[in-house]
Specification:
By secondary structure, this protein is of the alpha/beta class. 31% of the residues lie in helices and 22% in strands. The chain has 2 domains: 313 residues, L-arginine/glycine Amidinotransferase, Chain A (5-stranded Propeller); 77 residues, Pentein.
């Protein structure tokens, strides 16, 4: 059970169906919760259901994150530990915290999972509005914050080779997701036991953050990692050191991205389509600096060293990592305006379900046509509501098992 490429036949994936957490978005809180617009939740659910159905129809085992959380919180001891971490004195106040924990503890496991992901407000806890904190905050204030970005299962966790990354997330709105993923990986019988390449410390705060959308498995022995708004160079170096020590990779390509909403992760500007093909935002090679990181000499007591050199040609470096002489490069859009529009709408963010077979948003008509012209099989999914959180099919999926190429 491993991930050794981005395009090997996909066998198992974790998705999160949009739910209560997206119903919490308002004009007042959407920016803090990292959404550009409000979501028509029932429509988003329809679109997500069609995504999951397409995957199942193509032979992929789809695991839903809320069901995985439900499975592990059926154990009362595990549930109590998670509740204590989600409902704290800092989110509820000293007077309410025990009441909130008691309310959550009394819920059936599926309802508890819904609120651990979807959050909890003052008016949902009987009597919570009668005290000082509840009375001042008001009935719609959060006592347990919602996790509306949970639909993007790629970022909190990335599987690569025989292990995975448990991502310390950059934005405060996403940081609590890590607790739920950590609990699932520690206790779910189907998912426990793999080594953690990064994020193994049980801490709520990591200054060196990394997110799964920045991690691409380019081949058996090489990965690319975006150095982005949300992934720090320290995390990239530390991850590289772990993978070198485990003899999993020969080198890591660190790709410095422009800091911005539209380029938040590497997979918003590039993803793999086939053994020898990528889709890429055409501006990327000119705006990104690329560094090749390899193991250096033994650092002795001072720790390992790295051999680092700058790569003058990003696409050439990617081709070498993919072990191909002629890389097929498909770009978003035929001109600057079209490419920027479709990049914003996640035209580069495709999910490969097999070599040369991908899932893409239907709204990116030009990019999808260009992929088909290059011989790629493109399955389109509806994309009226899901893109409003700035994430595409790759963002919405956490592959667990792929066939080797």
């Amino acid at each position: 059970m491993s991930i050794t490429s981005e395009v090997g036949r996909l066998r198992e994936v974790i998705l999160h169906r949009p739910g209560l957490e997206l119903k919490r978005l308002t004009p007042a809180n959407k920016d803090m919760l990292l959404f550009d617009e409000l979501i028509w939740v029932s429509k988003a659910q329809e679109e997500h259901d069609s995504f999951a159905r397409l995957l199942r129809d193509r032979g992929v085992a789809v695991r839903l994150f809320a069901e995985l959380v439900t499975d592990v919180v059926t154990d009362a001891e595990i549930a109590a530990e998670v509740i204590a971490r989600r409902a704290t004195e800092d989110t509820c106040g000293v007077e309410l915290v025990d009441r909130v924990r008691g309310f959550l503890s009394d819920l059936p496991p599926a309802d508890l999972a819904d609120h651990l992901i979807g959050g909890l407000t003052v008016d949902e806890v009987p009597g919570a509005g009668e005290g000082f904190v509840g009375g001042v905050l008001g009935p719609t204030a959060f006592l347990v914050p919602p996790l509306p970005n949970a639909v993007f299962t790629r970022d909190p966790s990335a599987h690569l080779y025989g292990g995975r990354i448990l991502s310390p997330m950059h934005k405060p709105a996403r940081q609590p997701e890590r607790l739920l993923w950590r609990t699932v990986y520690a206790h779910h019988p189907d998912l426990a036991g793999r080594p953690l390449w990064y994020g193994d410390r049980d801490a709520d705060y990591f200054p060196a953050t990394i997110e799964g959308g920045d991690v691409l498995v380019l081949g058996d022995r090489a990965i690319a990692v975006g150095v982005s708004e949300r992934t720090s160079p320290i995390a990239v170096e530390n991850l590289a050191a772990r993978l070198f020590a485990a003899d999993e990779v020969d080198f890591v390509l660190a790709v410095e991205l422009p800091v911005g909403r539209g380029t938040m992760h590497l997979d918003t500007v590039m993803s793999l389509l086939d053994r020898d093909a990528i889709v890429v935002w055409p501006r990327l090679p000119s705006v990104a600096r690329t560094h090749r990181i390899e193991p250096g000499r033994s650092g002795g007591a001072a720790g390992p060293t790295m051999a680092v050199r700058e790569e003058p040609d990003l696409l050439r470096a990617v081709a070498e990592a993919m072990s191909v002489d002629d890389l097929r490069v498909i770009t978003t859009g035929e001109d600057e305006v079209a490419s920027d529009r479709e990049q914003w709408d996640d035209g580069n963010n495709t999910l490969a379900i097999g070599p040369g077979e991908v899932i893409a948003y239907e709204r990116n008509t030009d990019t999808n046509r260009r992929m088909r012209d290059a011989g790629i099989t493109v399955h389109e999914i509806s994309s009226y509501e899901l893109p409003r959180g700035r994430g595409g099919p790759r963002c919405m999926s956490c592959p667990v098992v792929r066939d080797p190429l």
